[in-house]
């Protein structure tokens, strides 16, 4: 008894069985959700308002700090400029002692200056305060070159060199400094030196924190200052000195709204930020550092008020939710009594025997529930009649199902439950019963299943479309599948119709392949086709023919309209050819001019022939080829040949005239310039011989210098003539044995200086294709230079070797001589340009210029590498560089490698 009472009580609160409980649950949960949503919305709105107010106050304070910091840095630069405005700092009017006194006074007058120094243009300290950093080279500082032209503010850094001269940072570690620099100008207004100051970072840090503490509204906030690399120079101890990596800061810096961010020290803060270099113009020609100023305030205090308001709104909402639940329980009880009575009537109708008429329920209540009961009885009778009709329809469907020529089956729960004879024949089964019960995935390929079947195995529902399946004997067949869903005894089933289209698909693929091949061939060859029926005169053409006519998308048009696309002469010739084709059955081959609708003109070749059926011409078929480019290319080749011949004649005449002028110049140099030089040298020698005892030592030295200058001038003239003649004449291309040539030249050099001990190595089998005379001069100059510049090396070593680089064969001459500085490499190859003094190594500066000319004459390359005191290596190749592939980047090698 107690158990039944308890069950009734539980059923009253079961939402699945009781409408009242369902109403109470729905209304109660709705109230709870509304309360939670309202509390959340109030919390978010209040947080936004609080963050906005806090952000506005913090941004105003941060803007004041930004302006103050910018003015302080610029103020130091102005004091430095004011101190150097007096003349004499560069031109020597003021002594080093006077400059040092001025620097000491500037250091004492401005708090924060740790060190001041006057630095020359090469970065060396000339005068400084105290004894700090007298030997520091400032040229390596990244800002020094800019400081020679305008005032510069550097970055903050840790000074390891001043760790013992300056007090350490208050929080520990190396002292932190900031470099300031301005150019110092001479009396002509030209920069002659740089005034550099080390500013103690602790002063800026203390001022910024003091300004932050002076404002009561932001006194509890933290100030964070970072440089361009994110290094924290001002900030709370957990962050100070660390690198701040926060991509979210981009949402804060230089934006009007504040944002709550999670910081690396594990706390959340309402944050705002500004860039120092966007403080506005404070001094002309001064670029402020790329520092970031951040102000953050603990988000917990900001959230406290919003959280309290959220809790009050949530409590009020839950009270309303409880009231709604009680009201819905009472209202549901009032509405559910008639529904319970109606449910009893429906169960009585449900228990009637199918196929028999149910008992008349008798008189009913006159209200809506009585009308519903009567309607249920009538519905029961109508349903019984419909079931009889469906039974008859099922019999007719089964007859059609069995006799259908298409394969038809029914799938349910991932298995075949029904199949006709055509389906058994399609799958190669003896009879339809062999397919009943088979899983669908064993009869159809995986790609034919959609993977969302109704049965226990996934992928058991067949998709409509074209599929390839395997018969039970393994033969592949292509089928076209149609699927429709229906319900059988309350369960979902699928009616599948399969039509075998294997033969049809083979024919379609063959036709499609032939069509695509024909279209591609037509497009590649720019050849189209058309046909004109006898009656009516209608023209049909291919896509390529439509493109040639400038009418893509049109596949057919009247013959008269098609003829309008040709110029009058071509139209007349084509019309006559068409009439002869229909009348005399003649073929034709014509070159026609086509005028397209966009105004362009094309040349086409048309070949046509008549097609007969039963001895009568029924249509004309023709091929059409666009030959515009071919005809234009032929015209262009003819014009190019004519122009090229004219250019060759003009260039030959210019080259002949240039050679004649060069011969005239060489004649003038060899005759007109040598006579004055011989006179100067001869008279100077005669004066020494005749008047030598009367001249003092200085006079004889001057005459001797005139003689030496005349000899050097003569040598320069000889070198200039040799340089102008070395690459003249016809260029021969011989296979030259470079190894044998280098051995002969080095042996000649050894005979000229038998006392020198030079170790040389020549790789065997080295060769180059070029003019033997020019290649001899090239090797003579390169080996002569290597021999000359190793005179001071002990032991002297030369190496002639072959290299394979960039797909070309190179010859390299390497030595361990004096070498050269690569920053002067652009002077190599220029006549009379030398990298060593004449008293160190004699020479005219003609040898490498000759080498460069010979290499360029052959279309080759020359590369040079050197290092002072470590030797040099010259590489050359006479093989032209390969032509780069179309679209590749063009690169030009530096002449010195």
From TrEMBL:
<dbReference type="InterPro" id="IPR001610">
    <property type="entry name" value="PAC"/>
</dbReference>
<dbReference type="InterPro" id="IPR005467">
    <property type="entry name" value="His_kinase_dom"/>
</dbReference>
<keyword id="KW-0472">Membrane</keyword>
<dbReference type="InterPro" id="IPR003660">
    <property type="entry name" value="HAMP_dom"/>
</dbReference>
<keyword id="KW-0597">Phosphoprotein</keyword>
<dbReference type="InterPro" id="IPR013767">
    <property type="entry name" value="PAS_fold"/>
</dbReference>
<dbReference type="InterPro" id="IPR035965">
    <property type="entry name" value="PAS-like_dom_sf"/>
</dbReference>
<dbReference type="InterPro" id="IPR000700">
    <property type="entry name" value="PAS-assoc_C"/>
</dbReference>
<dbReference type="InterPro" id="IPR003661">
    <property type="entry name" value="HisK_dim/P_dom"/>
</dbReference>
<dbReference type="GO" id="GO:0007234">
    <property type="term" value="P:osmosensory signaling via phosphorelay pathway"/>
</dbReference>
<keyword id="KW-0808">Transferase</keyword>
<dbReference type="GO" id="GO:0000156">
    <property type="term" value="F:phosphorelay response regulator activity"/>
</dbReference>
<feature type="domain" description="PAC">
    <location>
        <begin position="588"/>
        <end position="639"/>
    </location>
</feature>
<feature type="coiled-coil region">
    <location>
        <begin position="627"/>
        <end position="661"/>
    </location>
</feature>
<dbReference type="InterPro" id="IPR036097">
    <property type="entry name" value="HisK_dim/P_sf"/>
</dbReference>
<dbReference type="GO" id="GO:0006355">
    <property type="term" value="P:regulation of DNA-templated transcription"/>
</dbReference>
<keyword id="KW-0418">Kinase</keyword>
<dbReference type="InterPro" id="IPR050351">
    <property type="entry name" value="BphY/WalK/GraS-like"/>
</dbReference>
<feature type="region of interest" description="Disordered">
    <location>
        <begin position="350"/>
        <end position="369"/>
    </location>
</feature>
<feature type="transmembrane region" description="Helical">
    <location>
        <begin position="20"/>
        <end position="43"/>
    </location>
</feature>
<dbReference type="InterPro" id="IPR000014">
    <property type="entry name" value="PAS"/>
</dbReference>
<dbReference type="InterPro" id="IPR004358">
    <property type="entry name" value="Sig_transdc_His_kin-like_C"/>
</dbReference>
<dbReference type="InterPro" id="IPR036890">
    <property type="entry name" value="HATPase_C_sf"/>
</dbReference>
<dbReference type="GO" id="GO:0000155">
    <property type="term" value="F:phosphorelay sensor kinase activity"/>
</dbReference>
<dbReference type="InterPro" id="IPR003594">
    <property type="entry name" value="HATPase_dom"/>
</dbReference>
<keyword id="KW-0812">Transmembrane</keyword>
<feature type="domain" description="HAMP">
    <location>
        <begin position="333"/>
        <end position="388"/>
    </location>
</feature>
<keyword id="KW-1133">Transmembrane helix</keyword>
<dbReference type="Pfam" id="PF13426">
    <property type="entry name" value="PAS_9"/>
</dbReference>
<protein>
    <recommendedName>
        <fullName>histidine kinase</fullName>
        <ecNumber>2.7.13.3</ecNumber>
    </recommendedName>
</protein>
<dbReference type="GO" id="GO:0016020">
    <property type="term" value="C:membrane"/>
</dbReference>
<keyword id="KW-0175">Coiled coil</keyword>
<dbReference type="Pfam" id="PF00512">
    <property type="entry name" value="HisKA"/>
</dbReference>
<dbReference type="Pfam" id="PF00989">
    <property type="entry name" value="PAS"/>
</dbReference>
<dbReference type="Pfam" id="PF00672">
    <property type="entry name" value="HAMP"/>
</dbReference>
<dbReference type="GO" id="GO:0030295">
    <property type="term" value="F:protein kinase activator activity"/>
</dbReference>
<feature type="domain" description="Histidine kinase">
    <location>
        <begin position="668"/>
        <end position="882"/>
    </location>
</feature>
<dbReference type="Pfam" id="PF02518">
    <property type="entry name" value="HATPase_c"/>
</dbReference>
């Amino acid at each position: 008894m107690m158990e039944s009472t308890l069950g009734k009580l539980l059923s009253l609160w079961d939402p699945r069985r009781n409408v009242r409980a369902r109403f109470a649950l729905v209304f109660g949960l709705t109230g709870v959700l509304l309360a939670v949503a309202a509390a959340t919305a109030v919390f978010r709105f209040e947080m936004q308002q609080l963050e906005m107010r806090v952000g506005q106050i913090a941004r105003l304070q941060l803007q004041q700090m930004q302006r103050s910091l910018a003015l302080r840095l610029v103020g130091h630069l102005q004091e430095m400029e004011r101190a150097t405005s007096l003349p004499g700092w560069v031109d020597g009017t003021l002594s080093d002692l006077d400059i040092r006194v001025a620097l000491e006074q500037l250091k004492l007058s401005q708090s924060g200056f740790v060190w001041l120094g006057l630095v020359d243009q090469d970065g060396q300290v000339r005068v400084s305060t105290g004894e700090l950093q007298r030997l520091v080279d400032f040229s390596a500082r990244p800002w020094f070159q800019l400081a020679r032209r305008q005032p510069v503010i550097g970055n903050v850094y840790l000074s390891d060199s001043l760790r013992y001269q300056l007090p350490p940072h208050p929080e520990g570690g190396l002292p932190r400094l900031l470099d300031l620099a301005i150019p110092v100008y001479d009396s002509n207004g030209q920069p002659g030196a740089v005034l550099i100051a080390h500013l103690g970072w602790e002063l800026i840090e203390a001022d910024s924190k003091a300004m932050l503490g002076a404002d009561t509204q932001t006194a509890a906030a933290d100030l964070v200052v970072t440089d361009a690399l994110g290094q924290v120079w001002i900030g709370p101890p957990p962050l100070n000195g660390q690198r701040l990596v926060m991509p979210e800061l981009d949402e804060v810096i230089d934006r009007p709204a504040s944002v709550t961010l999670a910081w690396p020290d594990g706390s959340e803060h309402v944050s705002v930020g500004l860039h120092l270099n966007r403080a506005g113009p404070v001094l002309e020609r001064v670029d402020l550092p790329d520092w970031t100023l951040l102000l953050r305030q603990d988000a917990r205090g900001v959230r406290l008020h919003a959280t309290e308001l959220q809790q009050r709104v949530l409590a009020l909402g839950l009270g309303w939710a409880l009231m709604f639940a009680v009201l819905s329980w009472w209202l549901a009880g009032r509405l559910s009594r008639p529904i319970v009575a109606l449910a009893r009537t429906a169960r009585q109708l449900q228990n009637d025997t199918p196929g028999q008429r149910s008992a008349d329920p008798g008189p009913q209540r006159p209200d809506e529930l009585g009308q519903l009961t009567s309607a249920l009885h009538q519905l029961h009778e109508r349903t019984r009649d419909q079931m009889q009709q469906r039974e008859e329809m099922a019999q007719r469907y089964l007859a059609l199902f069995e006799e259908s020529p298409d394969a038809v089956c029914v799938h349910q729960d991932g298995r075949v439950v029904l199949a006709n004879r055509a389906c058994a024949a399609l799958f190669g089964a003896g009879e339809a019963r062999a397919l009943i019960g088979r899983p669908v995935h064993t009869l159809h390929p995986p790609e034919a299943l959609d993977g969302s079947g109704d049965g226990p195995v996934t992928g058991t529902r067949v998709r409509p479309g074209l599929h390839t399946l395997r018969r039970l004997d393994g033969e592949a067949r292509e089928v076209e599948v149609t699927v429709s869903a229906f319900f059988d005894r309350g369960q979902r089933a699928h009616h599948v119709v399969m039509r075998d289209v294997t033969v049809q698909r083979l024919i379609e693929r063959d036709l499609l392949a032939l069509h695509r091949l024909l279209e591609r061939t037509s497009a590649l060859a720019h050849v189209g086709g058309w046909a004109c029926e006898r009656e009516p005169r209608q023209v049909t053409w291919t896509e390529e023919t439509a493109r040639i006519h400038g009418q893509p998308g049109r596949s057919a048009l009247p013959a008269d309209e098609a003829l309008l696309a040709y110029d009058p002469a071509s139209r007349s010739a084509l019309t006559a050819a068409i009439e002869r084709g229909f009348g005399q059955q003649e073929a034709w081959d014509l070159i026609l001019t086509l005028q397209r609708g966009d105004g362009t003109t094309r040349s086409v070749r048309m070949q046509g022939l008549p097609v007969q059926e039963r001895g009568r011409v029924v249509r004309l078929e023709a091929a059409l080829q666009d030959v515009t480019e071919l005809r234009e290319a032929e015209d262009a080749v003819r014009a190019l040949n004519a122009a090229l011949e004219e250019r060759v004649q003009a260039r030959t005449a210019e080259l002949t005239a240039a050679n004649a002028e060069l011969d005239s110049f060489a004649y003038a140099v060899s005759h007109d310039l040598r006579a004055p030089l011989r006179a100067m040298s001869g008279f100077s020698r005669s004066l020494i011989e005749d008047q030598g005892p009367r001249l003092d030592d200085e006079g004889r030295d001057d005459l001797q210098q005139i003689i030496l200058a005349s000899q050097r001038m003569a040598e320069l003239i000889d070198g200039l003539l040799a340089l102008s003649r070395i690459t003249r004449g016809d260029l021969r291309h011989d296979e030259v044995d470079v190894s044998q040539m280098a051995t002969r030249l080095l042996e000649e050099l050894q005979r000229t200086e038998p006392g020198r001990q030079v170790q040389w190595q020549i790789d065997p089998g080295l060769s180059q294709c070029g003019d033997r005379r020019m290649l001899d001069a090239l090797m003579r100059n390169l080996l002569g230079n290597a021999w000359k510049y190793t005179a001071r090396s002990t032991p002297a070593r030369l190496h002639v070797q072959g290299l394979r680089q960039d797909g070309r064969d190179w010859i390299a001459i390497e030595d361990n001589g004096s070498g050269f500085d690569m920053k002067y490499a652009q002077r190599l190859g220029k006549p009379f340009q030398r990298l060593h003094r004449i008293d160190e190594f004699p020479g005219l500066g003609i040898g490498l210029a000759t080498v460069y000319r010979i290499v360029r004459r052959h279309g080759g390359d020359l590369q040079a590498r050197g290092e002072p005191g470590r030797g040099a290596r010259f590489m050359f190749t006479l093989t032209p560089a390969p032509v780069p592939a179309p679209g590749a980047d063009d690169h030009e090698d530096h002449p010195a490698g």
